[in-house]
Amino acid sequence: MKIITTHKGSDFDALASLAAATIVYPDAKPVLPGSINANLKAFLSIHKDLFDFYSPKEIDIDGVETLIVVDTHTWKRLDQRLQPLAKKENLEIIVWDHHSKGDMDAGEKYVRETGATVTMLVQEIERQRKLITPIQATLFLMGLYEDTGNMAFPSTLAEDAYAAGFLLDRKADLNILSTFLKPAYGKKQKDILFEMIQLAERSEIKGGFTMSLSEMEVNGRVQNLAMVLQMYKDIVNVDVAFGIFRDSERDKCMVIGRSGVDEVNIGFMMRSMGGGGHPGAGSALLKGANPGTIREMIMELIQGNQYSSVMLSDIMSYPVVTVNATTPVEEVVMLLRDMGCTGMPVVDDDDKIVGVISRRDFKKVRKSKQMQSPVKAIMSRNLITIPHNKSAIEAARLMIKHDIGRIPVMKEDKIIGIITRSDAMLYFYDLLPD
Prior knowledge:
34% of the residues lie in helices and 20% in strands. By secondary structure, the chain is of the alpha/beta class. The chain has 3 domains: 2-180, inorganic pyrophosphatase (n-terminal core) (Alpha-Beta Complex), CATH 3.90.1640.10; 187-309, Diaminopimelate Epimerase, Chain A, domain 1 (Roll); 314-428, CBS-domain (Roll), CATH 3.10.580.10. The strands form 4 sheets. The protein has a 6-stranded mixed beta sheet, sandwiched between helices. The protein has a 5-stranded parallel beta sheet with strand order 2-1-3-4-5. Strands 12-13-14 form a 3-stranded mixed beta sheet, with no helix packed on it. Helix 4 (134-148) packs antiparallel against helix 5 (158-169) and helix 7 packs parallel to helix 8 (225-236). The longest helix has 15 residues, at 134-148. The protein is globular and about 85 Å long.
């Protein structure tokens, strides 16, 4: 017998991946765990008859020869009735998951960090040219939207967007998504939020912003703590909020941050703790950590290691290649092409910066003979520079304000580097290689 299953506490990505896998493996029985989240219960209460799922108690463990697992590859996350399969000899295991960590020794493993597991299975369905119904397309899109935050989470990839387009082309119904795809907010979440508000403390941090940091004990795994923290931030009305949620049973602390100001980069802070995120939101899971120590770490990062303390010298490009103002346009074109860049500062004979040349300036060249003209004839003289002791966020603001792609970095009237739009984006959105 061949079965497909997913993790307990199933969400829409788990259910969608389970249903999609039945199309990829039509001879396998889909087994839905006994515990599913509230949104899923509401959806299945109406649509259950459209999907032929088995319960774990209906499965004869001894008869299972192939186990296909989607949206997880960790034994403890399976339904309790299926966990004995971990000890079964000669069991063929196939995994489809977008989480990188797991303890299953699978013979076939399809693991990529896409925004949602169902994305990979939709790609396989498209590759095999399998037909799907509008309700299947709708379910798959629900799983995709849920795990990518409606395509807004930083983990969302281009392939997630392509998969969404494929599903919409297959008549996925967005009205159904808006009806059932709501944040699960139950009694546990309400109790945690209520206690957080009762104990709320506000403080002022560097830059004149307000912050609140809350420490809470949670028993076992609680879903949607990020949503709870966002609600807490809004109710307490602070610029920045952090939640330290300690699960004493598993000896783990989940740290979640939210920021509404550019000067506090949550993603940067969470990466310092081994987690991740983007400027406005992020999280980290710390094992065996003391909440008091985590609090101290957060405060140190807030006071010291934010944008305001990351100087341009840390992220700018150098040494700077410049071009003399008398250099012919044709030579500058070849130089930029050889270097693979889109612009550079222009200096006079005393190495004093007098302008900037970029690809958009070459549009001023109308006649071939102008290619022999000195570059000063077409360079931009509206010179925008920035002192070396300014921050990355200040450089980004200048780029946006003046619609420019590069700014020379100055120290004592000399160019010591250049910050480009790419430098800023690589820094802010953590696209630099490790």
